[in-house]
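Sample pair:
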Amino acid sequence: MKTLIKLSAVCAAISAVVLSTAAQAQTVDPVVLTFSTVGDSRQDPAKVDSTQKPLTQQDYQWLQNSKAWSRIMREIGSKKANLLFFNGDMIMGYGNTDPANVNNASVAGVVNSDLVRYYTQSAFWRGMVAPLIESGTYVVPVAGNHEVQCRSGAVTTGTGVVASVTSSTQWANVTCKDVNGVTATGKLGMKVNEDAWRANFGDLIVDSGRMNAVLPNGLTVSSISGNTTSTAPGSADGLTTDQSKLSYSFDVGNSHFAIINTDPAGADSTAPANWLNADFSAAQARGAQHFFVFGHKPAYTYFYNSSATAGGLDANAAGTANRDAFWSTIESYGATYFCGHEHTFNMAQPVKKNADGTTTTSSAYQVLVGSGGSPFDAATLAAGETVTDRYYAYANVSVFQSGKVQIDAYGFSDTYGPTKLLQRVTLGH
């Protein structure tokens, strides 16, 4: 009995030392700002993941992975993140939200229109994140391709999606138009969808009063800037539609945050590289020391297996040149790029191919967290493949007073096992 008491006393003493050391470290170098980031929570009626079938009637109706996304939000809230950057594809979208396309002849025609679907899906997602905002984590939205692009054709469900449904057409054939108003096929950004984005998410971009209320230690948001220069005549980025509230930036203390639209109308799969470079230069002149960028599509595609195809800013020759200019700015300012689009997790320094055929490992990190609930890109895992390719994951970032930045990636399996620390990266030290 005495031995047990002694062991208990020893354990208590060790615990006290550990807690004291942790508290001392926090006192010596306190965390001054925290934020989390993730993307891609929308459901896909045509490609529901095998582990998500059958969908609940709720998720079939509103096209969301409520179970995974709700859990991620609870965990982010428990970590007391001051901000959450959601990297796009919060809705299925993919329609043409032009009001002229709404069939006003019947209630069904209105309800089933692309415009109303965009608004109702957005409203459902906004309702899910509202408690997070009210409990102290401000949500910063990033436009994804499902919000701003139109995809021609029809979207249909597969078999076994919902127990009572074998297959059906989710909505009618979608007609897309390019920036010149000409009917086009494939996936392309549309001005009307960019307008719908601002109408549904613009109040969060950036509500300085609400953001200041959750920021710690007297920090405030400042130097809010929107990308209005890229659409000016003769601008270097050559965009043709208003990008305000699609690409924008702001400061919090000595940290600078830039959000970019990677599918602007008429320039899909590109980044506003020139705007970003000018934006960073101005932020540095103000005294910014940390640079964080959030977009939807990755700069460098993560090839999770041999069947994966390029889908980021490197998806075509034009995109690759734009990607290189964009990434040059990322590296020059020691920035970190957070993104989604690929429904998986990967945090790495990209390997760049040089003109002479050699390769160079980038000095900057790309943090891919398109793992907020959408069907995994890796439908199954073959022998030897990374198990975290099918993890629901998010990143939590801590900015310390010393200037150190720590990125912790957390995740849980497709069977909803325990949450694990997947990877930790420390910058600035």
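The chain has a mean pLDDT of 90.
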